[in-house]
């Protein structure tokens, strides 16, 4: 079973507990939740630093010399940095595409309300705005391939 599926009930229980805590003790609950958030943030930063500063994992016996040489030549944390860059590329392009589709979609609907025959042209413009997300996905695939 996937680890993320197991954590969903834990997050639901924690969110319910946080809501009940805030309803019962307002000021002290805010300080308590802030302390928990700071502790989680420090732990996440420690994991990030550990992931970026570690070297490549040692492979088991029977590894080809070319693969071992390529793994040894890569600077420590280069694979993790490429994955983070891929995530940033996808997230940034998706957010940009969301804004573009929101503006062009609302303008297309407004134009189609007056002239319904321009449906095809309006959807082409909305589709071009959605292409921004596809560009980010392509960049992410290239970065993951180089990681």
UniProtKB/TrEMBL annotation:
Signal peptide: none annotated. Residues 84-143 form the V-ATPase proteolipid subunit C-like domain. Pfam families: ATP-synt_C (PF00137). Keywords: Membrane, Transmembrane, Transmembrane helix. It is found in: Membrane. Its main location: membrane. GO terms for biological process: proton motive force-driven ATP synthesis. SUPFAM superfamilies: F1F0 ATP synthase subunit C. It is a multi-pass membrane protein. One of its GO terms (molecular function) is proton transmembrane transporter activity. GO terms for cellular component: proton-transporting ATP synthase complex; proton-transporting two-sector ATPase complex, proton-transporting domain. The keyword Transmembrane applies. The keyword Mitochondrion does not apply. Belongs to the ATPase C chain family. This is ATP synthase F(0) sector subunit c. The lineage of its organism: Bacteria, Bacillati, Actinomycetota, Actinomycetes, Micrococcales.
